[in-house]
């Protein structure tokens, strides 16, 4: 069976979520592969109306395994709220999985996103101030914290201590704001880890196994091609690739696996 990538051809809001919702009826795996909670899909169905920012739209198909891939940056609080909303409406979320390689949005990402945007003044980029850009910047700078790190609290503490020391210097010396508390951030993310642990795993294996069984895999894009940081309206772009090529990286599959692109 093929891999179908559903992407936006413009700047987003093209109706990708509705397309994925329809195609997911025949899919075995649906993977959200890029972006963060700065983008969302609105789904209206018998369960109600849902604004999904992180959970793949295929969650409403009872036979589809839904994956938040390694190419997504996750705000744990937003994700937990989405899971709770789905559960409250009777939607089965036991089919949802989070890549252990997906990076997390931290409190300092949100703070720096807002502070940097304010510092730009009249040249502001129009960021959502949700910490998406700073989280992707830290991923490339090797300063990120990943979902898998939540599963080892001791290692998480050591990594967070190192990173937060650096971030607090920027917050206090560059922007003149109060530093973040290591204890508070660590405690909060340990709580997130306890809640999200059942969903976190190595997801690339799950996708590969589905393909080896000749099952349909959907790559659910976010935003649109004109927001791609390489081929979009730079610098007024997003921080990860919403193109089909980004789906290969964000889901962990070979480019030769993609048979169709819907845009």
Automatic annotation (TrEMBL):
InterPro entries from the UniProt entry: Adenylosuccin_syn_GTP-bd, Adenylosuccinate_synth_dom1, Adenylosuccinate_synth_dom2, Adenylosuccinate_synthetase, P-loop_NTPase
UniProt keyword list: GTP-binding, Ligase, Magnesium, Metal-binding, Nucleotide-binding, Purine biosynthesis
GO cellular component terms attached to this protein's record: cytoplasm
Endoplasmic reticulum in keyword set: no
Molecular function, one GO term: adenylosuccinate synthase activity
Pfam families in the record: Adenylsucc_synt
A biological process from GO: 'de novo' AMP biosynthetic process
SMART domains per the UniProt record, alphabetical: Adenylsucc_synt (SM00788)
Name of the featured protein: Adenylosuccinate synthetase
Organism of this sequence: marine sediment metagenome
């Amino acid at each position: 069976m093929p891999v179908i990538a559903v992407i936006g051809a413009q700047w987003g809001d093209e109706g990708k979520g509705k397309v994925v919702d329809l195609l997911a009826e025949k899919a075995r795996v649906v993977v959200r592969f890029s972006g963060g909670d700065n983008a969302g899909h609105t789904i209206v169905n018998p369960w109600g109306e849902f604004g999904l920012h992180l959970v793949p739209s295929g969650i409403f198909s009872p036979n589809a395994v839904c994956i938040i891939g390694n190419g997504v940056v996750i705000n744990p609080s937003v994700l937990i709220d989405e899971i709770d909303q789905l559960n409250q409406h009777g939607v089965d979320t036991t089919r949802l999985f989070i890549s252990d390689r997906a990076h997390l949005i931290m409190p300092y990402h949100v703070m720096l996103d807002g502070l940097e945007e304010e510092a730009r003044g009249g040249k502001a980029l129009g960021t959502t101030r949700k910490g998406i850009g700073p989280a992707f910047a830290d991923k490339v700078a090797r300063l990120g914290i990943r979902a898998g790190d939540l599963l080892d609290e001791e290692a998480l503490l050591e990594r967070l201590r190192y990173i937060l020391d650096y971030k607090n210097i920027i917050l206090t010396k560059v922007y003149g704001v109060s530093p973040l508390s290591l204890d508070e951030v660590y405690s909060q993310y340990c709580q997130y880890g306890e809640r999200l642990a059942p969903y976190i795993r190595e997801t690339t294996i799950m996708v590969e196994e589905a393909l080896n069984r000749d099952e349909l895999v959907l790559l659910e894009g976010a935003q649109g091609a004109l927001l791609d940081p390489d081929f979009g309206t730079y610098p007024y772009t997003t921080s990860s690739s919403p193109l089909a090529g980004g789906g290969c990286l964000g889901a962990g599959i070979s480019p030769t696996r993609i048979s169709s692109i819907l845009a």
